[in-house]
Write a structure and sequence with these properties.
About 40% of the residues lie in helices and about 25% in strands. The chain is of the alpha/beta class and about 220 residues long. Strand 4 and strand 5 form a beta hairpin. The model has no long low-confidence stretch (mean pLDDT about 90).
Length: about 220
């Protein structure tokens, strides 16, 4: 998944970024609210937001993006542990609320849980025709035989699976898979999709010319 991490504490932020990247996610780490605001138009699978930041309130920013119609899942991370704070955070637009200190494994579990809720799936196991996906284990199977996908190929499949039922534009898919460091050749996405089709079947990813891609049901 592509994640936006908004955390001003250098030690905590670096630790979370490294853990999430090791877990296979693409992470854009912002230390200030102004940096996150500059990325408001970028597509993400989840936003991990500290409440209190040096240049403003993370919760106020969440409220503002909700007013803009942005429905990306949000996990608030904060040391504020009062019941009234939890209620404010959840009523302010957060999908989950995590009190510091916490273990990074719990954060990743909560990310997966809010993504499942948003995607309308109660399970981390998804099926698309003869293809089965394990979103927790990051594994794809064709006819119950594990497919040897690269990390980037899995990122493509995962991004489409989390948006099942709708077309994902090329620009959005590139951003989700490659992130802000996208300096690859212009045909990188097509190369990954071609390889996925060889491994999972040519019909697994549908292309709507000029509109985007989606997983075939």
């Amino acid at each position: 998944m592509r994640l936006l991490l908004l955390e001003d504490d250098a030690i905590l932020g670096e630790g979370l970024r490294d853990f999430l990247q090791t877990d296979g996610h693409r992470v854009d780490w912002c230390k200030r609210l102004c940096e996150a605001k500059a990325l408001t138009g970028e597509p993400y699978d989840a936003l991990l937001v500290d409440w209190q930041l040096p240049d403003g309130s993370g919760l106020d920013w969440v409220r503002s993006i909700r007013r803009q119609g942005i429905s990306t899942p949000v996990v608030i991370m904060t040391a504020r542990d009062l019941l009234s704070d939890r209620v404010r955070g959840l009523d302010g637009g957060a999908d989950d609320y995590l009190v510091k200190p916490f273990e990074p494994e719990e954060l990743t579990a909560r990310i997966r849980a809010v993504r499942r809720r948003v995607s309308g799936s109660a399970s981390a196991l998804l099926a698309f025709g003869d293809v089965r996906l394990d979103l927790t284990g990051k594994v794809a199977f064709l006819h119950d035989v594990r497919a040897d996908l690269t990390a980037r190929e899995w990122a493509v499949v995962e991004a489409l699976a989390l948006r099942a039922g709708r077309l994902v534009s090329r620009s959005e898919l590139e951003a989700l898979v490659l992130g802000l460091d996208n300096e690859s050749a212009s045909n990188t996405l097509e190369v990954h999709i071609s390889s996925i089709r060889r491994k999972l079947g040519r019909g697994v990813i549908e292309t709507s010319r000029g509109l985007g891609y989606r997983l075939a049901t």
